[in-house]
């Protein structure tokens, strides 16, 4: 299996994704932003559709469009502070409308199924380079802003009082979410990207550890889920996105059972 070039590409891309997605996901879950991952993953569908229609790399157009949607969400949150889910619905509707119109036009130059469900066959070396550059950049920014993000996550008002530029950091963080999602499309697929950002975090939270320990376990569980999901996907010839999603849920169930018996 590892002698095949497409599996090597898939594993290399998945390694970056398995670190970045749970890292972002922990902050999303604790800030009650879980739905933003789902919204932006569907927004990336429109970005992919734009790339397929105009003939550009869909990962690049997905990154640009998803980043734009991320900025719109953060901007509109100031106008709908008590109705955050309304902002998600607006952006989701707008994005899906664009995607459906473009895909149904018949001008898309490739099969969109590989982007919806993920594919280990379509990851190219150029994709790995792009994923690596964006992924490493996102991880570096997260490490740089780590302490401020933790402060904002648990006490946003206190962070403002202490002089932290909360709005600017929120914009940066939302852009990181958009970038993470757009880079995960090839492996996870649009429909289940949000699962690998949330489920490993939910699994790690069952252990009831400190924030840093939970973050470490989130990344560990994310790595296990994605790698096992890829292996299962190869042997049973299934879409990696769905296989990884089921693997992550199964891991969560096993940890819950373990904690119950240990308790």
From TrEMBL:
Belongs to the ABC-3 integral membrane protein family. GO terms for cellular component: ATP-binding cassette (ABC) transporter complex. This is Metal ABC transporter permease. It is a multi-pass membrane protein. The chain crosses the membrane at residues 12-33, 45-73, 85-108, 128-147, 168-185, 214-236, 242-261. InterPro entries: ABC_BtuC-like (IPR037294), ABC_TroCD (IPR001626). The keyword Transmembrane helix applies. One of its GO terms (biological process) is response to zinc ion. Keywords: Membrane, Transmembrane, Transmembrane helix, Transport. SUPFAM superfamilies: ABC transporter involved in vitamin B12 uptake, BtuC. It is found in: Cell membrane; Membrane. PANTHER family: ABC-TRANSPORTER METAL-BINDING PROTEIN, METAL TRANSPORT SYSTEM MEMBRANE PROTEIN TM_0125-RELATED.
